[in-house]
Amino acid sequence: MVVVTGSDTHRTIDAVWRIESARLIAGLARIVHDVGLAEELAQDALVAALERWPETGVPDNPGAWLMATAKHRAVDLLRRNKRLEHKLEEIGRDVESRQDGAPGFDAVLDDDAIEDDLLRLVFTACHPVLSTEARVALTLRLLGGLTTGEIARAFLAAEPTVAQRIVRAKRTLAKAEVPFEVPPRAELADRLSSVLEVVYLVFNEGYAATAGDDWMRPALCEEALRLGRVLAGLMPKEAEVHGLVGLMEIQASRTRARTGPSGEPVLLLDQDRARWDRLLIRRGLAALDRAEELTGRPGPYALQAAIAACHARARTPEETDWARIAALYAALARRTPSPVVELNRAAALAMAFGPAVGLELADELAAEPSLKDYHLLPSVRGDLLAKLDRFDEAREEFERAASLTRNERERALLLDRAAACGRATASP
Questions:
Q1: Cα(315)–Cα(310) distance, rounded to whole angstroms?
Q2: Are 411 and 210 in contact (CB under 8 A)?
Q3: Which pick of 143, 299, 377, 408 has the fewest CB atoms within 10 Å?
Q4: Mean pLDDT value of segment 213-226
Q5: Whole-prediction pTM value?
């Protein structure tokens, strides 16, 4: 028993909750077969800890204490529900045979059982019956242990909006009677794709915030990386899981170099590569190697990780293998056809074979309806036009890009580039 007092207790409980909440909710969901109810029971256990631990001290095994307390709450609930009497007998015998749910609750905290439950929780929170926004919010709540307020601040959303999104998500899962299970093999690929999409969406929002005053939100990158690493541990033979982890590790390695002293964006080719995190790069390359070992046909995340690896291996921008990057984007376009992938390929072609080559493809994309309000299309076109000394056209493109972005840091950068084109036009 660890005795702490006052604010130290609350900090300790907060740390324990961050570590244990996902496993706690996962274990309870297996018992009650209802994610929403499992979270309520876990929250009840947290309240009990907040009430008792300041007086009794933090248990030697706080996770076991929380699970035992939550299980007692489940027994009380099941007693009031006649339809679940058979579960009451099973759970009640287990709980009541132990004194006060003391640490040592080994059957509940068996490592294999925990891993199985966590995997079930991942697939439930990311079930395709939910909207993308709901999957992201529920995953961060159940697996990340984030509060509603923290999720709202991370995505610049109103807290009541996020709260309602989470409530509706849990109701949808219950109404659809989504089973708390890992999907059968026949469905695994599609369902795993949904899970990986959620993790990468969280990472991307941290890596390049879509709106607000900050260019990056590193806490979201860290949370996505943590979820990705957990998933890789739970599904070690899934190549795309390792591909996504490799991609995120390598991209995260640039975090310190992506902003200047005042928080302003620093573009890839202007970054101080000495500030790139070599440990994260090594971890990312190892994950990419693992993904490539597991499959002869790399998936979308492994291909993107291979593109990121080309940058990571180049000691200077001039050493970057742009021809390989363009080829990898072409392979990615074949696997997952997308105008955004084609736009990235245009930028790579411009670096490998000259701006006129890249601009030809970018111009073809100008008529693509899905890119109508996508600010990076005029941004890329502006960059290529500037390299061709077509400064008036470039200025217009940068100004259009600035009008479309919702990120204030990015808007300032684009307007600066537009102004530079204006000055170049005025020069004799």
A1: 10
A2: no
A3: 408
A4: 90
A5: 0.83
